[in-house]
Queue: 2 jobs
Job 1
Amino acid sequence: MANATTPARRTTAVRMSALERLPIRRIILTVLSVAIAAFVIVGSYKTLTLPAGEAYTWDTWRGIIVRGVSQGAIFALIALGYTLVYGILRMINFAHGEVFMMGAFTSFFFADAYAKSGFLNRSPVTALLIIFAVAVATSVGVAVLLERVAYRPLRNAPRLVPLITAIGASLFLQQTARGFFGTNTQGYPRPEVLDGTWTILGFPVDRIRVVVLVVSLISMGILQYIVARTKTGKSMRAVAEDQEIASLMGIDVNRVVVKTFVIGGILAGIAGVLFALTFESVNFFMGVRPGISAFTAAVLGGIGSIGGAALGGFTLGVLQAVGPPLLLTGFNVPSPFQLEDVVTFSVLVLVLIFRPGGLLGSGEAEKV
Amino acid sequence: MKHRRVLRLLALVAVLSLVGAACSNDDTGGEETGGATGGATGGAVDCASVEFGCLEVASGEPITIGTLLAISGDTASLGLDSQAGAQLAIDYLDGTLDQVDGQLLGHDVQLQNEDDGCSADGGQAGGQALAADPSILAVIGTSCSSAALGVADKIFSDKGILLISPSNTNPGLTSEEAHQPFYLRTAHNDKIQGAIVSDFVYTEQGITTAATINDESPYADGLAAAFRDNFEAAGGTITAVEAINSADTDFGALLEGIANGNPGALYFPDFNPACALIAQQAADIMPDTLLIGSDGCLATDFLETAGDAANGVFASSPDLSVFANGDFYKNEFIPAYKELVGTDPTAVFHAHSFDAMNILFDAVESVAVDNGDGSLTIPRQALRDAIFATSGYQGITGTITCTELGDCATDVTIGVFEAPGWPVEGGEPDSAPVFSETKSLDQVL
Amino acid sequence: MNPRRLIFAGLIGGIAVIYLGLVGLLAKFAERNLIGELVTGSRAMVAAAAFCAGYVATRPRVVAGELQRVDGARAGAAGALVGATSGALVGLSVVFVDWFGLDRIRDIFVGVSPDLLDFLSFGLSIWAAVGVLTVAGAIFGGLGGAFRSLDPAIRRPLGNAVVITLLMALLQRIVPVAMQEVGLDPDWLYSPVTGGLTWIGAAVVFLVSLGLSVAWMRRGDRVRASVRTITQEQPSAKVAAAAIVIGLLALIPVLLGTVVSDVLGTAMIFLLLAIGLNIVVGYAGLLDLGYVAFFGFGAYTTALLTGATLNTTTGAAAPAISLDLNFYVAIPIVVMLAAGAGVLIGAPVLRLRGDYLAIVTLGLGEMVSILITSNWLAPLVGGPQGMRDVTDAAIGGFGFREPHHFFYLALAFVAIAIFVSWRLASSRIGRAWNAMREDEQVADAMGISTTRFKLLAFAMGGAIGSLGGALLGVKLGSLTPASFEYIVSITVLSIVILGGMGSIPGVVVGALVLIGLPGLLREFEEYRQLIYGAVLVAIMILRPQGLIPNVRRSRELHEEDRAQDKWASDLSGDEDVAAPLTPLGEGAG
C-alpha cells in the first residue's frame, strides 16, 4: 500500500532536473513553440484580413462563438463525471462515456412510449422527471457494477492496470448496448416546451441549450457543495488524500468509492438525457466522441478540479468552434471544420507541455 | 557498422523470400492440376476444359451463396439490410414471401454470411474466406466500395466467382481500367444520383449557389463530388466544401461558417444520425437555404431525429414507385422484411440485393445442368456470361440490364422526395417524389 | 458448502446465459451444428455456462489457513444445485418473455427473436422447457462440480481435449477446405450434411487430443529439459533447432491452405504492431493509446514512396508527391522517418506520465486518422477514397500479394522485429527501460537518462509499427482510412496485455489468439470487439501478467502481490483462461 503513494512524493522532491539538462527536448520544444505561435498569428491575421466576400462577417463569428459555448456546456457536464472519479481515486474512468450512453439509451424506451401516448407533451415535467429517474438509475447501476466487477479488484494495482480495464469495460459496454438495442439510431422525442429558442442578450439561443447550461452550473454547484461541505465529501477527500490512513481513521473506503461512483453515475445519467434531448437521438456509439471530448476537457481544465472541468468544457467548446475557421481558413485549408479535433488535441498537447496539470490543475502531472 | 546491419537484415529478407518463392510455386502448380481433375468428373458439361471449372451440387445438398457485407461496426445497418434483402430473395423462390424458404432447381439455397468490415482489410479477409470455399456459387457484396475496389473484386474474379454488389456506388469499380471480369452491381452509379440532384437544384429550383457537407465515407465523398462536378458544369457556384466525422453531433459552428457564404442549397449526402442532425441544426441557422440529403439520409431515423425541422428537407433516392413492381414492394416486400428483421428497413439497398439474388437465380436456371440424379452442375464461366447478358429484367429497383463493365442499373430513376413525404415509415409511404428523372450512365459526366 | 453462495453462483450463470441471448449470440449459433445435430453452438454455450458456474462455485476454499478438499459426490451435488439454479433462471426468463409478449420485448431488445425463444424452449411447451432447462442445467452444473474434484493429472488433459474438440468443431469451415486443398477427404471428420464434426470424427479428435495431452503431462517436462540440455551443450543443435522451426514455419502455407495463410498474414501484421507497442508499453511502461498513428504513417508513406496512385471517383490520379522507389529501398527510409516521428511526438509529451500520456497519445492517433481522411491532405493521400495500386513488393517478378506468398514476407519482417526486440530487451537499453518502468526517479538518480530512453522507446515502437503499415499495403494493394481507426490501437494493446506485457512469446500467442482465432472463426466477427473488451477486463483481473508472462516481470508482479495483499491473489490459481466462447463467463467467473 505504501508503495502506491510514495513515488508521487518523491517526484516533487527530485523534480527530474535531468530532463532540463537535455538539449533534444528543449530544442524540439522551442522550435515547436515558435512554430505554433507563428502559425496562430499568421493564420488568424490572414483569416481576418481576407477580402470582404470571402471573410466571415462579425455576425458569423458571433454565431460560431455562441455555438461553441453551448457545446461547451455539454462537455462540461460530462467532464464533471470524469473529474470526480479522478479526483477521488486518481483513476480515469474511461467507461464514463458508456455509462452515459447506457442511461440515455434505457430512458429512450420510456421517452418514446410517453411521446407516443402523448403524456410527454401533456405533462412534460412529470414525464421528464420519470425519464431522468430511469436514466439516472441505469447509469448508477452500471457505474456501481463496473466499480464492483472491474475496478475494485484492482484498487491497489499499478496505475496502468485499471486504466486498461476501463478501456476494456468501455468497449464491452458499448458492444453490449449494440447487441441489446441494435445498431439503429433512435429518434429521441423532445417535449414541445423545449423546442424553439429564447432570446438572451439580443440573440436567440436554443431552449434546450439554456437548460443544459443551467443544469451544468447547478450540478457543478451541488457537486462542489457535496465535496467541500458534507460529511461524505469530507470522507471522499480523505480517501483521495490517502486511502490507507483514511481507513485507519474509520472511513469505509469501499463505501466512499461506491458513493463516488454513484454520484458519477447520477451525473452521467443526467448528462445522457440532456444530450439525447439536445440532439434528439440515441445510438450505441453515442458515448464515444462526447466521452473523449469531455475527457479532453477535464484534462485541459485540470483533472480532479471541479472548476477545471467547467473551464475545460467551455474552453474546448469554443476552441473547437472558433479554432478551425480562425486558424485554417487564412491558409486556404479546405474543409477546416473537419480538422477541429486536430486543433483540439494540438492545444491539449500545448497546454500540457506548459502547464502539465491543466489550466486549473496543481501544475503537477507527474503522479504515478 | 549500422549500414552493415541493415544490409544483413536485407539479405535475410531476400533469402527468406526466395525460400518462400520456391515452396509457393510448387503449391500453386499443384492446385491447378487438382482443380482440373476435380472438374473432369462433372457430368454432362465438359468441366475440365472450361475456365474456372464447374460447381457441383450433390443431390440433397444446398446451393451456397456467400454474402460479404458490412454486418458489424457503425455501418452494420447498411450490410444487415442488404443481407435481409438476400434472405428474402431465397424466401421468394417459392413465389411468396411467407418466411418459408423456397428452392432453386430442387435445392435449398443457403447464405454464408461474411463481414466486409466496410474496409479494404475486411474485404480481403472475408473475400479470402469465401473464395477458398469451393462450394460458393456467387457472392452478394460488398456493402462498401472500399472493400471491393482492387480487393474483393480481384480475389473473386481470379477464382471465377461472381461478386454482385447491392450497394457499391463508387464509379471507379466499373471504370474501364479497374473493372474485374466477375464483378457487377445492381446499385446505381453515384455519378447518376449526383447529376440528377444537380439538375433538381439548378434547373428545377433555379438555385445557382450551393455548399456540400460529406462525412468520411467514400460514398458520401464521391456523391458530393459528383454533385459538385455536375452543378459547376451547369453553371452553378459552390460556396463551401465541408467534411465531417459521422460520429459528430454538433454542427453548429460548421453551419454558421457555411451560412456566411449564403448558399442557396446545402447538399449533405451522409448517413443518419449525422444527416438528420445537420438538417435539424441547419433549419435554425440557414432557414432560407434548400436542404437536400441523399439515400443515406432517407430513413425513419431521420424523420424521428430531425422532428419538425425535417419538414421541407429533400432527399434523393432510387425511385422505386415508378415501376410496375412498386406495389409488390410496398405491400408484400416491406411487411416481410419487418417480419424477418424486426425493424423497418435501415437502408435502401435491401431492394438492390433482392434484385441481385434474382438475376443470379435466373442465370443459374439458364445454365445449370441437371444430371438426372438430383445433382446439378453449374459451369462458372457460363454463369458469368449468362448474368452479364441480363437484359430488361423487371426488378424492384427498375429495369436491369447489365453492361460489359458490370453496371446493371444502367437506366436509373432517382426521385427527390420532400419531407414529411418520404416513402418510409414515419413519413408518408404512398408519397410520390416532387421531382423524378431517369438518366443513363452515358448521359452523365 | 454455503447454499447461498451456490445459488448466487447459479444466478450469475443464468444471467450469463440470458446475456448471451440478449446480445444475440444464442440465436446466431442455434443452427450451427458442432458435433452431429445434437451439439449446436448455442447448446454448447448454455451447457458451458452451467458447467463453468458449477466448476467455479465449487472452488476449494481456504478456511482457517487450510485448503478444504471437496469429495466428488458433494462437489457434484453442489454443482448440480448451481446448474439447476442457472437453468431455472433461464427457464423463468423464457416464461416471462412468453407472458409479457415477445414483440413488446423485441421492441427494446432486438436480439430477442422468435428463433431465440424456439431455441430455449426446444419446441416444447413453455413449462416443459423450464423443466428441461433446469434438469440440463443440473446435469452440466453437476459435471462441472465433479470435474473440479478430479485429480489435476486427469482434469487438465480432459479439459484440453474437450476444448480442442470444440475448437475443431468450430473450425468446420476452415479445416475441411484445407484438407481438400492438400488432397485429403474430410467427409469422415466433418459431415457435409450437418456441417459440423461427425460423431466418429469428434471421438477421434477427442481421443487423439486426450492422448497427446496425457503424454505431454507425463513426458513434457522431460522433453523440455532434454531439449534445453542439448541446445545448451551443443551449439550446433541450436542452429539445427532454428532450421527445423524455420522449415516448419515455411511449410505452413503449403500445408494449411489459402485461408489459414491469409489469416496468419493478418495476424503477423498485428504481431508486428504488438512487438512494437510491447517496447513502448511492456518495456518502457509508457501507455500509448494512439499506436495506430505509426501504422497509418508507415502504410501511407510506403505507398507514396513506391508510386501508388490515388483512388478517385473517376479512376486513378497521381498523388501530389510521389516517388517510384523499390519497396526494399523505401522500407529503410520509412523506418527512419517513423523513428523520427516517434521522437517528435515523444519529445513534447515525455514529461507526462500514465493517464495523461494515454489521452495525449490517443489524441495523436485520432489526429492521424482525421488527417488521412481530410480534404486537406486528399491530394496527397486520397482522403476518404484512399489509395490504390500499392506495390506488391515483388522480387524479380515474384509478388507477395497472394496470401501464401505474403506469409513469407510477413514472416521475414516479424523475425527481424523479434530479433531486434529481443536483443534490445537483454541489452543495456532494455535494462534501463526496466529500471525506468519500475521507478523513474531511482532510475534517474542512478544516472539513466530517462528522456533519451523514453525517446528511444518511442522511436523503436514507431519504427516497428510503420513496418506493419508497409506490410498492410502489400497485403491489400489499396489503402483506405477505415483501416486506421482507434480500434486498431485498442486491438494491439489487447494483444500485448493478453500475451503478457514485455514478453515476446506472449505477444506471439496474443496475436494468434486475438487475431488468428477470430480470423478463422469469422462468425464471431460481429462480437470481436465485445470479446476484446471482455479479454482486457478479464486478463487484468484474473491474470495481469498475461498468458505467457515475461519471467522478470512476473516476478515483480508476484512481489507486489505479496506487498499488496488483495490484488492479483489468483495468480497461481487455476488457468481458467477459457476460449472466447463465453465472454461473460470469464468476466463473471
Job 2
Amino acid sequence: MTAILESSALIESFKARAEAVSAKVEQFATKQEALDLIIRLLQQEGVDDKPHCWAVWAACPMLGADDKTRLAAAVPGLKFDVTRELAADAKVGISQFDWALANTGTLVQGADEVDKRLVSSLPLLHIALVSTAAVLPDLPGVLTRVDPLKSAYLAFITGPSRTADIERVLTIGVHGPERLIIIMVDDLEVAA
Amino acid sequence: MKQEFRQSILDALSNPNLTGALGNFSVAYRAGRAKAYEGIDFEALRTEIAEIKSTASSHFDELAEQFTKAAEARGAKVFRTNDPKAVKDYILRLAQERGVKSVVKSKSMATEEIHLNKHLEKAGIDVQETDLGEWIIQLAGQTPSHMVMPAIHMTKEEVATVFSDKVEDGQKPDIPKLVKFARGKLRPMFLNADMGISGANIAVAETGSIVLMTNEGNARLVTTLPKIHVALVGYEKLIEHFKDIAPILTALPKSATAQLLTSYVSIISGPTPNTGGTPKELHIILMDNRRNDMAHDPRFKEGLQCIRCASCLNVCPVFRLVGGHVFGKVYTGGIGTILTAWFGALKESDEIQSLCIQCGSCKDVCPGKIDIPELILELRRRLAVEQGQPMIQKAIFSVVNNRRLFHTMMRAASIGQKPFAKDGFIRHLPMFLSNMTENRSLPTIAAEPFRDRIKKIKQPKCAEKAAFYGGCLVDFAYPEMGEAVVKVLNKAGIEVIFPEGQTCCGAPARYSGAYEVAAQNGADNIKALLAEDVKYVVSACPTCTVALKQDFIANLEAVGRTAELPAARQLSEKVLDFSTLANQLVEEGRLKFKPNLETSKFTYHDSCHFKRTLHADQTPRKLMKQAGYELVEMDECDMCCGMGGSYTLKLPEISAPILQRKLVNIEKAGAPLLLIDCPGCVMQIRGGLDKRGSTIKVEHTAQRLAESLE
C-alpha cells in the first residue's frame, strides 16, 4: 500500500520523461474511459475497414470478449487477429505493456508473441496501454522483476522512433512509429 | 609520417561540412551529456561498469561456455570462433543452405570489422544496412566517420544526391522528406528479407541473452520480420549476470547521444515464434578475434571495458577537427586507435596513434573508466620498441638530456634569432621553420636562464627550504615565472634552491614512446632533487609536476628498473605544483593578500595535466578570487590549447585550428587578463593572441599572485 502511495511521484516523473521524448501521455481512472478515448482516437485517425486504414490490436489481457465486441462495433477496420500483412498495412497499432519506468519514461513488455512487436513497430501511430500501478522507479527495478527464462523477447520502448543521422537533426518516425500515445489506466491489474 | 596520412588529415581539415558538424556537435554534446547524467553519481556508475567488464574479460572463455549452454538450452544455435573467416563462412553457408537471397542488417561494428557484407555480396546475396546513417554510407560507397553517427560528415544535399543517384531520381535536400523516403524504401526490404543480421550491445552469459539498442527501431524489425536471425557478438560484449545489464544500459545512451535511454531496447533470450507460428531460427556467433589476447595483456585488458559509446570521440579536440575517416575504416577516435591496434595489427595504429594530443579529456568521460591516453602512450612505447626511434628524434633527445649542451644550443639560438625577435616574440622564422610560427609567435630565449638568474636573487635565510624544478620553458624562456615563484615562497618564509643537477623531466621522451630515455631522465632528476634537504619540491609546470609525481615511477616500472622505485616514491611525496603549495601557505596563514589591491576581471584556461591529472583546477581560481579578481569563465575553459608539447611541431595542421578555437573563446570572455598555470599553454596562447594583435595579458598564476601578496 505504501508503495502505491509513494508511486504518485513516480507517475508524474514517468509522464514528464515520456513527454520529454515526444510521447503523449493520458491517464484514466477506469478501463472503460480509456477504451472510450481509444475509440475516439481511432475514428479521428480515419481507421476504416479497407486497405491502409486498419488498426491492429495485439493480444491484450485487459480486454474481455465484451470489450472487443464493443470496440469492433464502434470502429470498423479494427482487427484483433493480427497478421504480418495487416500490421504492415495498418494506420494504428495498439498494445498493452507490463511496466513503465519513472526515470526514463520507458514502457516495458514481455513480447514473445510476435503480434505485440508488429503492432508497435510497423504502423505510424502506436497506442500503448499500461496500468498506472505498474510504474517502477528505474531499470534495475524492472530487471529484477522480469525473468528472461519466461520472456525470450523483452521490449523496451521510450518515445517514438527517431534518428539524427542526417546533419544531427532530430527527426521522428524512421522505421518505427512517428507517434506514441501512452494511456495509463488506474483500475488495471499489474502483471505478476 | 607518410604523405598519404598527412594528406588525409589535410583533406579532413579542409572539409567545412565535417569540421562544422563535428564542432557543433561537440558543443551540444557537452551540455547534453551533463544534463543526461544529472542526479547520477557518474564515478560510482563507471566504477561498477569497469568492474563488471573487467571481471568478464578475466573469464572470457568460461563466460562464452556459459553463454553457449544457456542460449542453446533456450533453442538458439551458438557458434564460437577465433577466426573472422570462419564467421563469414558460417553465415554464408547458412544463407546458402536456407536459400537466403536478401539480408537486412542492423548496425554492427563487428560485421564491419570482418568485412562481412562484401563476403555475402560476392556470393550474390543482397545485403542492406538499415540504420539510416549506415544505409547512406553503404549507398555512397563510404565508410563510417563516427562510431555512433556514421554519416555525420555528409550534408543533406549530399544525402539527397546519393539517394537520387542510387535509389530514385529527384530527391530534395529536405531532412524529414529524406527520412520518410528511406522509411518507404527500406520497409519492403525488411518485409521481404530472408535473414536479419545484428550485432549486440551486451551478451549475458548466465541467461544466454543479447541486448540490442537502437533509436530508429530497425533492430526490432531485423529481429522480428525475417525467419532467421544471426547475431554477431564480439567476446568483449560478454558479461556474467543479467542484473548487470542495468548499469551499462544506464550509461551507454547518456554517454553516446546524451539520451536517458535509446527509443528501443530488445533483450532476446532465445528464439521466439515467427509470424505464421514457426519458431525463429536464431544463430549467435561469439567471435574472439584477438579479444582474448588483449585480455591477457596486463596493460591493454582495460581497453575491453569499452561499451562503444564513442564519448571519447565526442570530447576529443582532434577528432572534432579531422573526423573518423582519418582513423581508418571501422573503429575510430581514441578507443578506436587501441582497438585497431589489437583487432587489426599494432602497425596499423602507427600513424593514427600520433593524432592523440594527450589532453586527457576522454579519460574523464569514459563510462568504462579506461585510461585511453595512457593506453595510446603504451602503443607508442611498443611501436618505438618494435620499430626503433626515428634518427631525428634520437638526435633531439641526446641534446635535450645534456643540459649543458642544450643550454649552449638554446643560447646560440637565442642570439641567432635576433633578426627575427621583437618585443620578446619571434614572429617569423625563416624557411623550413616557418610553419612553427605561422599561427603563433614563439617566445625569445632568455639571454640568461633561470638557473643563473636565481643566483642573483637576494633571498632571506630560512629554516624551511623548497627545491624548485624549472623545466625547459621556465628555465630558458620564462625565467620571470621562476622569479615569481621565489618571491611568493620567500614571503611565506621559504627559501628556494635550484638543484643544478636537474635535467629534462622526460615528458618529451615518454610522449614519444622512448621510455628508456624517459626513465633515465627520471633517475637523474631523482638523484639531483633528493640530494637536497628540502621540505617541498615545487614546479610551475604541470607537465613537469606530473612527471615528478607520477611518471618517474611509471617509467622506471615500464623498463623494469624496480630498484629505483623507492627513491622515486620518496620524491613523489615531496612534489607540489605551485598553486597547490601557495594555497596551502595561504590556508596556513603564512601568505596574506594585499588590501585594496587594484584588480580586474580575469579568465582562466585549464591546462590539461593541471586539471585532469593533478585535479588542481579550482585552486588558482580560488586564490585569485581571494586576491579580489573577478573570474569570468570562458567557453570550453578546459579544452586543450593545441600545444601538447612537441605535438605542435609534429602536427601543426591540427594544433593551429585547436588554438584558434581557444583564442576565440578567450576573446569572447571579454576579460583583460588570462591566467594559466602552465608555461607551455602560456607559450601557445600568448603567441596566438599576439598574432591576432590582441591586448589581453597572459600570465602564469604565480606572476599575478606574486604581485597580489603582502
